[in-house]
Amino acid sequence: MASGKTLTKGKSGLRMLPNDDKDRSPFTIEEPPWQPDEKYTSCVKCKGSFDFWKRRHHCRRCGNVFCGTCCDQKVLLPRLNFVDPVRVCEECAVVAKKENEFFDKSLKVLIHGADFYVGESSEETVHCKLNHKNHREILVGKNHDVIDLTKLITVKTISDNPESQGSTLPVVTGLIFKCKNESKNSPETIQLRALEPLQDGRKASLNWIIAMQKGIKILFEAGN
Length: 224
Fold this sequence. Notes:
The chain is an alpha+beta fold and 224 residues long. It folds into 2 domains: 5-109, Zinc/RING finger domain, C3HC4 (zinc finger) (Herpes Virus-1), CATH 3.30.40; 113-222, Zinc finger FYVE domain-containing protein 21, C-terminal (PH-domain like, Roll), CATH 2.30.29.160. It has 2 helices and 13 strands, in the order ββββββαβββββββα. The strands form 4 sheets. A 7-stranded antiparallel beta sheet has the order 10-9-8-7-13-12-11. A hairpin with an 8-residue loop joins β12 (171-179) and β13.
């Protein structure tokens, strides 16, 4: 199957979908099925009965059935691959706002990348970035060792002593990725540590860690 994406028209709107599942971003989710109209005689939120004037509307984010008043917002849903704003309920509009912040800001930070130390004792810095093509892999260093996000088991944080940073709160300065390894009997663990204070690139690596933490939350919520 050819790589790339195809603009697909459905009853919910236009969506840009990958031609091959291996090109699907793990940060996206499938469009939920619409609840059948005949199952609902009233809006699931306000409980108002449907009639000729109060019509049924489906939220594109959750698939539930609402009246026009309770499902009157139109927002972008990049996580579901919609290309135009679509109708959502009030609750899903709040969820979509947080998701869109990740796609608009954090995802760009991850793709741009930052410099890190790899492992517990390495003093050599390498550039790490998210694969911009499908967002499935973290590319580590020039040789592009890979952290496969679709095989992620756990992610642990590394925190500095807050007193050493002149702060009262711990600062997350690293991530430990534990992933499935099909060629080995045991999982593979890779540790990324931010650059030291006063080093050029320290702020970029800390911002990358923050962005990745948001991405990991989305990944685990999606069940990947």
